[in-house]
């Protein structure tokens, strides 16, 4: 898929790969190139600098990242923005239309997790971990639970709020000061045995540090469940 020249109006995009009027086929022509969905995923919680996206996806070359971002801008999925002072840094962020892809990512993720071939031992980014929580939370279990939750993942910090309408998560700069619950670990993978494997932090090697009222912590952890594997 070429860049600005072909994506300004969308012509030469629909039908280029498949010659098919199906909207799903068109969707694949828009976001189906290698790395495109992962770039979108890394922007799902807010705007990020080029260097931050690159650091989250170290296998992705700077050249390819530049190409993907320019293609997504041409399609109207990503836009550039300027952070306010004192930072004044340029960031890439999803447009309103682009943010609508979170539901696409959630459904794709839930579907793919049913495969026995999914390998949770592969690397995971902090943003991917946060989005997995929004994906795998069962809203029917929330009930009257309301809590502010801090997630410290290495040098990245996120603030979450769970209430009747679900779980919202956003970057938290230097971290939350007084959350109801705090989860801290060096790696995103350290969260997985506790959140999705249903082990205690001790059973998981105490790599995930947890603070807060024990009953509230357990109620929060009980909100998450992996989908049943195919054939399971």
Write structural notes for this entry.
- With 232 residues, the chain is of the alpha+beta class.
- It folds into two domains: 4-99, Winged helix-like DNA-binding domain superfamily/Winged helix DNA-binding domain (Arc Repressor Mutant, subunit A); 126-221, SCP2 sterol-binding domain (Nonspecific Lipid-transfer Protein, Chain A), CATH 3.30.1050.
- The protein is built from ten helices and seven strands.
- It has helices at 4-7, 23-31, 36-42, 50-56, 62-75, 96-99, 101-113, 126-136, 192-195, 214-221; strands at residues 78-82, 90-94, 147-153, 156-163, 166-171, 181-185, 209-212.
- The chain has a five-stranded mixed beta sheet with strand order 5-4-3-6-7, covered by helices on one side. A two-stranded antiparallel ribbon has the order 1-2.
- Helix 7 packs across helix 8 (126-136).
- The longest helix is centred in the N-terminal third of the chain and has 14 residues, at 62-75.
- The radius of gyration is 19 Å and the shape is globular.
- Residues 1-10 have low confidence and may be disordered.
- Pfam families: HxlR.
- Residues 22-120 form the HTH hxlR-type domain.
- This is Winged helix-turn-helix transcriptional regulator.
């Amino acid at each position: 898929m070429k860049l600005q020249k072909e994506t300004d109006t969308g012509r030469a995009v629909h039908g280029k790969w498949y010659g098919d009027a199906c909207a799903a086929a068109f969707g694949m022509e828009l976001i189906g190139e290698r790395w495109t969905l992962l770039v979108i995923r890394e922007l799902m919680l807010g705007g990020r600098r080029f260097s931050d996206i690159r650091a989250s996806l170290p296998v992705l070359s700077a050249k390819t990242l530049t190409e993907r971002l320019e293609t997504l801008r041409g399609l109207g999925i990503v836009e550039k923005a300027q952070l306010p002072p004192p930072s004044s840094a340029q960031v890439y962020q999803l447009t309103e239309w682009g943010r609508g892809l979170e539901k696409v990512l959630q459904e794709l993720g839930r579907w793919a997790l049913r495969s026995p071939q999914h390998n949770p031992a592969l690397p995971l980014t902090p943003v991917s971990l946060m989005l997995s929580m929004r994906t795998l939370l069962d809203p029917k279990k929330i009930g009257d639970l309301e809590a502010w939750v801090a997630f410290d993942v290495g040098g990245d910090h996120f603030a979450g709020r769970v209430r009747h309408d679900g779980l919202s998560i956003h970057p938290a700069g230097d971290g939350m000061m007084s959350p109801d619950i705090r989860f801290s670990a060096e790696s995103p993978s350290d969260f997985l045995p506790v959140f999705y494997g249903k082990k205690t932090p001790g059973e998981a090697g105490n790599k995930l540090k947890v603070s807060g009222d024990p009953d509230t912590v357990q109620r929060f952890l009980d909100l998450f469940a992996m989908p049943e594997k195919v054939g399971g």
